[in-house]
Specification:
Helix content: 25-40%
Strand order of the largest sheet: 1-2-3-6-5
Distance between the termini: 57 Å
Strand content: 25-35%
CATH topology: OB fold (Dihydrolipoamide Acetyltransferase, E2P)
Low-confidence stretches: 10-20
CATH class: Mainly Beta
Number of strands: 8
Shape: globular
Number of domains: 1
Oligomer: single chain
Largest sheet: 5 strands, mixed, barrel
């Protein structure tokens, strides 16, 4: 029979596992509502990052594209962020695919909550899809962002 691991040991293992699949970076440019450019803390050059599981309106979209970009800027511009990954690391355009956090704020989720992005499920990156779908449904019911006119 296996002994139960102490809580502190479990927490340490969780943090270790999380950090093996995540890294910190500074946001140097907000491209739009779901894409940013970052520089690794070690100065390894710029990397384009596309948020996993969401789709924000395009910038050419008269109001909501710019609104999504401004909201994203307010969350991440110039800040140190933590990037975490799912199964696929890159899209067909060579962008790094990531879930993004500023402190304890889950940026991907905040954009959906504000009604400025929709949830999208693209296998195999589905880790947070159920959360994103729930947040989208709430934003739609509250007529936030892109859902104001529906």
């Amino acid at each position: 029979m296996l002994k139960k691991l102490p809580v502190l040991t479990c927490f340490f293992l969780f943090v270790l596992a999380t950090n093996l699949f995540a890294f910190q970076a500074r946001v140097v440019k907000v491209v739009d509502g779901d894409t940013i450019d970052v520089e690794r803390a070690k100065g390894e050059g710029r990397i384009r990052v596309r948020y996993i599981g969401i789709d924000a309106p395009e910038l050419k979209e008269p109001s909501f594209g710019q609104e999504a970009k401004r909201f994203n800027q307010g969350l991440v511009a110039g800040k140190m962020i933590r990037l975490a990954f799912d199964e696929e690391r890159y899209d067909r355009y060579g962008r790094l695919l990531a879930y993004v956090w500023v402190g304890s704020t889950f940026v991907n989720a905040e954009l959906i909550k504000a009604g400025l992005a929709t949830a999208i499920g693209r296998p195999p990156n589905l880790k947070h899809l159920s959360l994103f779908l729930r947040l989208e449904d709430e934003a739609r019911k509250k007529k936030k962002g892109i859902w104001r006119s529906s």
